[in-house]
Every structure is written in structure tokens, then in C-alpha cells.
Structure to design on (772 residues):
């Protein structure tokens, strides 16, 4: 088991390296450090001295990939690529292009993101499973047909509609909760209610349909028929046998996204002005702050790789047939 | 005639579809699922709605420079037909079917006195002499007239078709699906004719901030949505199919390399990858401004890049499915028999593997379409979607969402975008369900 985990961690290294190279190429192939300096300092009236100064401060005054002026090993290490990559791998993100310390920013903004994403996930999961179970329990009735039609309709509505509509109706017309904003501690609750509800509602359509197929697939298996033949009622079969076995794919599907919860949701956070990592990324994209975007890409891939590892481990925990070698 | 890049790709897509249709014509194994689709009411109705959208999108994809144009502006056939809509611009917001602007302003009356009130629109309802009393009767009259014209137009063509073709007539009498389909076609044609008729006199869906007709914007956005949904697929399919089949068939180091590739791409949050690439495209375009002289060419390039990037980020899912399926198929008896008989590997891939994974490709294409249309709106909101000058539902929503805070609220832009998007996505989703039912071999035994 430990050996397996170690090997998976080693596998992750070339993966992260690939992500790093990809983003590096993407950012520097058309965009030289000079351009970045010009962009951050404002397009007009920039002296060459100011540009040099900015590049010096942000560590962009080195060659991109290969430094000819240095000695043997330093030819590789004294470059932008090496300097910036090492920082990422050590999770020391350095300063952003606008001059802020990214590590403190990320540490600070992680928690609001989590405060929004975790309740949304848990509540959404519960609601989706309940709706899907109901559809399976009442299968081949008008209730199922009706809820399937409703699910397709819910699925076809843009998520922006839920957000804008929810903010307008609940926040502005009914004035039940504040339209947007954030507070730390217990006060956060009233700001979180609306985004969580909207997040759950917008996910019901596709989520419930997906879980329904999982349940139906399980309900057609032989052991379920045996259980029915034993004389168990339909509810007993569903809750005792089908639900338990269908939870395996559901849970492992959830484990993949668990680490990514820290990254937050771009749209929700910027609509409800929650100071999480999602709105951090959006601000960076809008102000063309490449250092932050690069750091967030790296962080996202790292968390995804962790999620994959956790999935494999959780498989062994919930399904005794699976052995990791 | 001017050919934009996305136009060219759309024509290419149409050619491919036509060739595919010609090749599959009369093949037994494809007939059964097609029959299943054509006998499903929901499937056929949603197909009609989709085809209607496609027709508008295609009309919007034939571009030319009109001979009387002053500034060499590229327009499409749809633009040409909608010239009155394009030119009937007002000053700022006005509600649907309104005859006055949305906001009060100071205006000078003919007799020289200044008055603070709602100015009348330049075009919307300008044929009325006294809007306050005439508006409603005129509206009702025009709607009834438009409906009557549209209905008689569509019934005329339907009767013509039935009288010419006895086969169609028989089918109409026998099958309930045919009846529903014709009813839906009748409804759509009459309704759209009425809307077009009314839009010559009024702003059917109001006007936006700079006074542009919202109905025109919503119609123009159809092409953007369709282009994103289909061209992305066109770009991603070759990658997904080739990589997926090769990885599954050859295994070994080929499999390792391809798996590494798609895990790497998959591990990057797709929104961030799209954002990063779009930022780069913006920087590139800003540097090479001379290459993009016309606004429409520039916007078109950006749309194409967006399709490209979305394609690159979305092939991984399909690739993984195809790899798993190929792994299963290569152990099948008929493939092993072909190998034992000494058939070349390229031939095995082409004749035995590829046709047998096609149902997965088809299902994933129709399933992806609706999510791509929805994704466009979200991406435009973060400013990493289509060019701000392109007409798209995302841009409409983005431009109008701040106006919700006004009093009285400006709801028409937002609602128009949501309703059009909903209609397209709902039709696509329903059609995808039917296609999945028909082509999924696991469900084949159920009927």
C-alpha cells in the first residue's frame, strides 16, 4: 500500500513537469518579459530603466531557457524557467506580477472558497441522491416521467440564469439575504445561504439524472433479483442493497473533486464577491497577471493529482475486491 | 462572396456529413437506430427545432460585401434580409413593443418649449399618429394579420407537398409522429413569420443600451452558439479518435505516451487553460494588429481560436472512452481472426475497430453540444469567451446583467438571451437522449 502510494507520487512528478512546461510555453512564447513589464507599468511613458527595474524585481531579467553567460550547471539554473519552476514545486509561489506575495494571498483566500464549496457539495450530493432514489423507487410511473422532464429542463437552463435570477428574486425583491458579500466567522452564514442554494439547484438536473442511471444499472443486477425473490419489499431492496453498492462509484466520484474544492468556483465567487481563490483567479485573468494564473494552474493540477490518488485509496476502503499492487 | 475561417470549416463539416450520409446510406446496421429515432416523437420534434436553428445559422454563414456598401463592410445573407432591423437603431433602451424610450429626458417640442418626458422612438411604432390609443389595437391587428399570413404560407406549402407526393400523404395519415412533426413545423413557421412581420414595425424584444434591436442580436447569436458547439467537435474528434484507438490497440509505450498526454491536459483546470490560451491570443492579436484589418475578421479569428482551445481541452474524455472500448474490442474473436489471417494492422483498425466504436463517438458528440453552448455564456462572462463585438448570448447576458439594478428593470435583453439559449439547449438535450437510446447497444435489447 505504502509502496503503491510512493510510486504514484513519483508518477505525479513528470505529470506536473508537463503541466509546468505547457504553461511556461503558453505564456512566454508570444509574450516576452518586456511586454509583461510594459503591461504592468502601463503602456505609455515607460522608460527602459523602469522596465529593467521591474524585471529585476520580479526575476524576469534572466534568459528564458538557457543561460550562456554562466558556468556549467548554472547554464540551466540561472534561467527564468528554472527559477520559476523550482518555486512552484516547493509551493513557494513568490510575488505576483503586481507585486503581492502570492503564498499569503492563497493561504488567506483558500478558506472562503472552502466555506462555499464544501456545503454546496454535501448538500448537493444529498439532494441529488434523494431525488434519484425517488425516481428509481417510482419508476415507470408518471412521477418518474415528470421528474425526468423537469431534470432535462433544469439541465438546459444556463447556470448564469440561476445566479442572476436568484440574486434578483431572493436578494433584491424578497430581501431575505444580502445580494453579495462576505464576512468571516459565523456571520458568513447569511452570505453563504444564497450561493449554496443556487449551486445545489443548478446541479440537480444533471446530477440526479446521472445518479439515476447508476441506481438503475445496479437495480438490474442478479443479486437484486435474488433479494426481491427472498421477499424483501422494494424499499428494503433499494435502501439496503442498491444504495450501498451504488455508493461506490458515487463516493469515488466525489473524492476526486475533494481537493479541488480549495480552488473554489470562478463564477459563483465573482458574482457573490466572495474573496476566495476563484475570484482571485478571475481578477488575475482580467488584470493579465500571468504569475498568478501560472501558480493557480499548477496548484489546480497538483490538487487533481492528489484527488486521483485519494480515489484509488478510497476504492480499496469501500470495495474489498480492489487491491492496490 | 467572402469566406471567413469559421465559414470554411462549417462548409467542410457539411461536406463531411454529406459524405458520411452517402457512405452509410442503406447500411443495415445503421437503419435500425435511425428508424428508432424517426419513430420517436420527442426526437423528431427536437430535431425539427434544431434544424430550424441550423438553417438560421447557415444563412448567417454566407458572407459577402454588398455592392452598395460604403465602408466595405462584410455582411451575411441573414444581415442582408434583416437590413431594416440593423438600421432601425434607437438612442438607448426601450421596452418590447414600446413607442417611447425607457428613460425620460429633456426634449424640445416643435413650438420651441422644453419638456421633460419620454421621447418617442424613431422607428418603433413610428407609423402610429397617436401611440397611446392606437398601440394595442394596431398590435393585435398586426399580430393577427402576421399569424394569418404565416399560417396560410405554411399550409400552402404543406398542401403542395402532400398533393405532389402520395407517400408523404400516406405517412401523414398513418403515423402520429408525422402529424406532430408537421404540427410543429406549422407552428414554428407561423410564429417566426409573425415575429418577422411585427419586427418591421416594432422592436419585438426591445432595444439595448446603444439602441440596437435585441431580436436581431438574439438571432445573430444563434450562429455563434452553433459554431462553438459543432466546430469544437470537428476539431476534437480526429485527436480523440486517433489517439484513443491507437492507445487501446497498440498498448505498450504508445499507450503510456498517450495516457501521459491526456492525464496532463486533464489535470489542468480547463477554465484556467482556456483563460491562459485566450490571454495569449489577445496578446498575439494586439501585436499583429495589421493582419486583422476588419473587425469581423478579427472576431472570427478569435471565435476559431476559442473552438480550437475548447477542442484541445475536451478531447480527453472521449479519448479515454475510446481507449477502453478498443482494449475490449481487440480481444474479440473477429479481430483475432483477422490478425490470424494476416490482415494488415492499419486495415484492422479501419475496418474492424473504427466502425465498432462509432456509436460512442456519435453519442458523445451530441451530448457535448449542449454543454458547449452553455459554456460559451459562462466564458464570455469571465471575458475569456468570444470577442466582445461578436453577437453571442453570453455577451448579451454580460452586457445586461448590471441593468437588473435599475428601476424599472431592463429585463428584455437578459430574458431574450436566456429563452433562445434554453430553446436550443433543450432541443439538443432531448435529441441527445433519443440518439443515445437508439445507438447504445446496451439498450438495444429493450425494445
Amino acid at each position: 500500500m505504502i509502496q503503491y502510494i510512493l510510486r504514484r507520487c513519483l508518477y505525479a512528478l513528470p505529470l506536473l513537469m508537463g503541466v509546468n512546461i505547457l504553461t511556461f510555453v503558453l505564456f512566454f512564447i508570444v509574450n516576452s518579459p518586456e511586454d509583461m513589464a510594459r503591461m504592468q507599468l502601463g503602456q505609455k511613458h515607460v522608460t527602459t530603466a523602469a522596465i529593467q527595474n521591474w524585471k529585476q524585481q520580479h526575476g524576469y531579467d534572466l534568459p528564458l531557457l538557457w543561460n550562456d553567460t554562466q558556468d556549467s550547471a548554472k547554464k540551466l539554473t540561472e534561467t527564468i524557467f528554472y527559477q520559476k519552476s523550482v518555486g512552484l514545486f516547493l509551493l513557494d509561489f513568490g510575488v505576483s506580477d503586481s507585486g503581492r506575495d502570492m503564498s499569503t494571498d492563497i493561504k488567506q483566500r483558500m478558506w472562503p472558497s472552502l466555506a462555499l464549496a464544501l456545503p454546496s457539495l454535501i448538500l448537493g450530493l444529498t439532494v441529488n441522491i434523494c431525488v434519484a432514489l425517488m425516481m428509481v423507487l417510482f419508476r415507470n410511473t408518471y412521477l418518474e416521467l415528470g421528474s425526468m422532464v423537469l431534470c432535462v429542463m433544469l439541465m438546459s437552463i444556463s447556470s448564469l440564469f440561476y445566479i442572476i435570477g436568484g440574486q434578483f428574486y431572493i436578494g433584491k425583491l424578497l430581501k431575505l439575504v444580502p445580494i453579495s458579500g462576505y464576512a468571516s466567522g459565523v456571520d458568513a452564514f447569511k452570505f453563504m445561504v444564497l450561493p449554496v442554494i443556487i449551486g445545489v439547484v443548478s446541479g440537480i438536473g444533471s446530477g440526479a439524472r446521472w445518479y439515476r442511471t447508476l441506481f438503475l444499472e445496479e437495480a438490474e443486477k442478479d443479486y437484486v433479483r435474488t433479494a426481491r425473490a427472498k421477499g424483501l419489499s422494494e424499499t428494503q431492496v433499494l435502501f439496503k442493497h442498491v444504495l450501498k453498492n451504488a455508493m461506490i462509484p458515487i463516493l469515488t466520484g466525489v473524492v476526486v473533486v475533494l481537493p479541488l474544492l480549495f480552488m473554489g468556483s470562478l463564477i459563483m465567487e465573482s458574482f457573490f464577491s466572495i474573496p476566495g481563490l476563484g475570484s482571485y483567479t478571475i481578477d488575475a485573468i482580467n488584470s493579465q497577471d500571468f504569475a498568478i494564473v501560472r501558480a493557480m494552474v499548477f496548484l489546480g493540477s497538483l490538487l487533481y493529482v492528489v484527488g486521483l490518488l485519494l480515489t484509488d485509496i478510497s476504492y480499496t476502503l469501500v470495495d474489498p475486491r480492489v487491491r492496490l499492487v | 462572396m467572402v469566406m471567413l475561417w469559421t465559414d470554411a470549416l462549417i462548409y467542410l463539416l457539411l461536406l463531411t456529413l454529406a459524405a458520411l450520409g452517402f457512405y452509410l446510406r442503406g447500411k443495415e446496421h445503421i437503419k435500425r437506430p435511425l428508424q428508432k429515432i424517426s419513430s420517436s416523437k420527442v426526437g423528431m420534434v427536437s430535431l425539427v427545432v434544431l434544424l430550424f436553428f441550423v438553417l438560421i445559422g447557415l444563412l448567417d454563414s454566407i458572407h459577402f460585401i454588398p455592392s452598395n456598401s460604403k465602408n466595405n463592410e462584410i455582411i451575411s445573407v441573414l444581415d442582408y434580409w434583416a437590413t431594416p432591423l440593423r438600421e432601425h437603431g434607437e438612442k438607448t433602451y426601450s421596452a418590447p413593443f414600446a413607442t417611447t424610450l425607457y428613460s425620460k429626458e429633456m426634449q424640445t417640442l416643435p413650438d420651441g418649449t422644453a419638456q421633460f418626458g419620454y421621447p418617442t422612438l424613431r422607428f418603433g411604432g413610428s407609423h402610429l399618429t397617436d401611440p397611446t390609443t392606437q398601440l394595442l389595437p394596431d398590435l393585435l391587428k398586426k399580430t393577427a394579420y402576421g399569424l394569418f399570413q404565416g399560417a396560410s404560407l405554411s399550409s400552402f406549402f404543406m398542401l403542395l407537398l402532400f398533393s405532389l407526393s402520395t407517400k408523404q400523404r400516406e405517412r401523414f395519415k398513418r403515423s402520429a409522429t408525422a402529424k406532430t412533426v408537421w404540427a410543429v413545423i406549422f407552428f414554428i413557421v407561423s410564429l417566426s413569420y409573425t415575429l418577422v412581420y411585427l419586427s418591421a414595425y416594432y422592436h419585438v424584444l426591445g432595444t439595448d443600451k446603444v439602441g440596437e434591436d435585441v431580436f436581431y442580436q438574439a438571432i445573430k447569436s444563434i450562429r455563434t452558439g452553433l459554431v462553438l458547439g459543432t466546430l469544437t467537435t470537428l476539431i476534437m474528434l480526429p485527436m480523440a479518435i486517433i489517439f484513443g484507438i491507437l492507445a487501446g490497440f497498440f498498448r505498450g509505450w504508445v499507450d503510456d505516451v498517450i495516457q501521459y498526454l491526456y492525464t496532463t491536459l486533464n489535470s489542468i483546470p480547463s477554465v484556467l487553460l482556456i483563460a491562459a490560451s485566450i490571454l495569449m491570443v489577445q496578446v498575439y492579436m494586439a501585436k499583429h494588429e495589421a493582419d486583422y484589418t476588419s473587425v469581423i475578421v478579427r472576431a472570427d479569428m478569435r471565435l476559431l481560436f476559442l473552438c480550437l482551445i475548447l477542442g484541445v481541452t475536451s478531447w480527453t474524455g472521449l479519448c479515454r472512452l475510446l481507449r477502453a472500448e478498443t482494449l475490449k474490442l481487440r480481444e474479440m474473436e473477429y479481430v483475432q481472426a483477422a490478425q490470424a489471417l494476416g490482415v494488415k494492422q492499419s486495415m484492422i483498425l479501419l475496418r474492424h475497430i473504427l466502425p465498432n466504436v462509432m456509436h460512442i463517438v456519435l453519442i458523445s458528440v451530441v451530448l457535448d453540444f449542449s454543454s458547449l453552448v452553455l459554456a460559451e455564456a459562462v466564458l464570455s462572462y469571465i471575458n475569456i469567451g468570444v470577442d466582445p463585438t461578436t453577437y453571442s448570448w453570453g455577451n448579451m447576458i454580460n452586457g445586461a446583467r448590471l441593468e437588473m439594478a435599475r428601476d424599472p428593470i431592463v429585463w428584455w435583453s437578459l430574458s431574450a438571451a436566456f429563452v433562445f439559449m434554453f430553446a436550443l439547449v433543450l432541443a439538443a438535450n432531448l435529441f441527445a437522449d433519443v440518439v443515445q437510446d437508439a445507438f447504445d447497444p446496451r439498450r438495444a435489447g429493450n425494445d
